[in-house]
Amino acid sequence: MSSPCTTxxxxxLIAAVGISAxxxxxxGNDGGTETNADGEIVVxxxxxxxxxxxxxxxxxVDEFNKSHEGQIEVTASYQGxxxxxxxxxxxxxxxxxxxxxLQASDVQTAYLHDSGIAVPAYELAEKDGSYDFEQLLxxxxxxYSFEDKVxxxxxxxxxxxxxxxxxxLAEAGVNKDSLGTVQGLIDAATTIxxxxxxxxxxxxxxGWYVEQSNAMLGELHCTPENGTTxxxxxxxxxxxxxxxxxxxxxxxxxxxxxxxxxxxxxxxATGAFQAEEAAMQMNxxxxxxxxxxxxxxxxxxxxxxxxxxxxxxxxxxxxxLWAIKEGHSEEVQQAAWEFMKxxxxxxxxxxxxxxxxxxxxxxxxxxxxxxxxxxQQALLDQLATTPVSTVTxxxxxxxxxxxxxxxxxxxxxxxxxxxxxxxxxAAQVSADQSVASYIERAxx
Length: 444
Hints:
By secondary structure, this protein is α+β, with helices and mostly antiparallel strands. It is 46% helix and 14% strand. The chain folds into two domains: 41-158 and 317-375, 3-Layer(aba) Sandwich (D-Maltodextrin-Binding Protein, domain 2), CATH 3.40.190; 160-316 and 385-443, Periplasmic binding protein-like II (D-Maltodextrin-Binding Protein, domain 2), CATH 3.40.190. The radius of gyration is 22 Å and the shape is globular. The model is unreliable at 1-7 and 18-29 (pLDDT under 50).
């Protein structure tokens, strides 16, 4: 096991996001073991899953508790969206009132890794020898690894994909084969607007789509090497020619109506697709469950995200589970690991995929899925064929959350008529300030 973290290490976690470290609890692994009236070890689990994903997650918690009756009780509590949950978690570092397991989004991966507040998942696996991370799909393992070591259990993994109204594409005379590159997607969306009067494309203003834009174009999102080596990422890559050109074209499409503008509301983008106001939507695979349950009045399909180079592809997203060591005994950490292994099992991953659209994380879970819809098969095919590369590893930076706010603002500005080159240049300056501040304050 790794050595206990130091108080200064956790203070750095607090300082890196600008929260006072006054009254910070001492760090260590000497926390107590909470038990319930039946003598079961209580594992408090904070999560941010709602809708279909939340229902599935609670069902898995109930299943685990039933199979571990008399031993472990996992108590799951919804903490709001990912941003709300991590803010509460960081504030709770000061009081020591931390969960044994935290479900954190992809954007928080490097941040939690740098903090040292969690027991690395690979260490827990090595300790009991009961979980082999080599069974993870290469793309998933690539995303959640630091120097080839997995630090959290991939739980509900997603990739963005292209949701398509086949009827509107046919009306516009657009061939799906033309959607394989970013330029092909842009041209198709413009044609759809010209031929049908409907927007060709929609996606909400989340910085995630700027990251995916770079990945679709085969560009690193941060440098050096997307933060995948021992050297910290020190700059973002928001002003490369390919990205600026793409967003200049997106700006023109917003102005013409070829690109629907839902603002920051993902539900508004999905609503536009469902109402046939937009022919295509870039959306997470995790949105499949809600869309499949809707009564759509048109023929629809899912296509892989466009790829403009051989190394390009959709970067995984979603969430993973972290075993928090601060304030928890090794007994509680082991109980937490039992639940994490359960979530990482083939059966749990297949259930998550079938009910939500989040993607299976292991090779055998993927191979065992047979009774799937054409839309689900398209998601599985993209997962299996996305190249494992430095590009698709995504940007690993503890400053990613703050930086994402910078280029999300740029997205909104571009949608409202700002020049893309100027907006992205401003985002570059702000994002680089975020990463420099993070490195300085966290001592990274």
